[in-house]
Amino acid sequence: MPRNHFFSFKSFTVHQNLSAMKVCTDACVFGAWADVEKAMRILDIGTGTGLLSLMVAQRNEEAGIEGVEIEEGAFRQTQYNFSESPFAGRLTVHRSAVQDFLPPAPFDCIVTNPPFYQNSLKSPDAKANLAHHSDSLSFADLLAASDRLLETGGRCSVLLPFEESLVFEKLHVPSYWYLTRELVLAHRPGLSPFRRMMTFRKGIPPVTAVGEVNRELLYIYEENGKNYDSAFKAYLKAYYLGF
After folding, report:
1. What backbone phi and psi angles, to 5 degrees, belong to 15?
2. Mean per-residue pLDDT for 117-129?
3. Region for residue 240 given its phi and psi (left: phi exceeds 0; alpha: psi -120 to 50; beta: otherwise)
């Protein structure tokens, strides 16, 4: 996906010149996939440009959506993108670390595309480090905050690199959070997956038998690596201008 200063969708435009977290394909899939049905109060942790909030606002026409963002440029970018969207009346962003965020009531749905590099070489760009490295928001901190901010029975959807998602799930997810859905994303058949999306429900075991999770493997491209996969197009048809 090209790194332009803005990215136009069918119903809104995301400006991204102030944010280190640019619009990318996996985040777009996540915004189209995350479980936000019937939610009334949605929290977007690490809002970046506001992309996820805008996408879920299009899908859920009743919910109020709040973002929390620590980096000043991304915060101002989100403010602008929210104000210019047709969903402006239902969107709010707070400049805060999520560890310090104290809303008046818990949320029934959380979506997050968090910083995910645990121990890798950092960029000289401080904004990029905040967006991509977990120093400012470790997996343990993310889950502690999400657990505090999510009501019992609420859903939390998270996007991570595939290998990091295994660490996240094994070492940090509370025992009373239950995995209900997952989507594994690969570029095309024959290549290893590079992203994993997971939805957890807090405190209420799934009705289905243990181990029965709604699992999906999605390819961006067909086997030739040139044509978009039909399932990928179906997810993003409501958003991408070219679909």
Report:
1. -85, 140
2. 47
3. beta
H/E element, 169: helix 162-171
- Tell me the C-alpha distance between 167 and 118, whole Å: 10
Per-residue pLDDT of 18-73, as tens digits, reads 888 899 999 999 999 999 999 999 999 999 999 999 999 999 999 999 999 999 99
**Helix/strand/coil percent split, the chain, to 5:** 30, 30, 45
How far, in Å, CA of 19 to CA of 72, rounded?
9
Measure Cα distances from 130 to 54, 122, 187, 219 in Å. 21, 10, 26, 29
CA distance 144 to 206: 22
The token duo for 242 is 């070219």
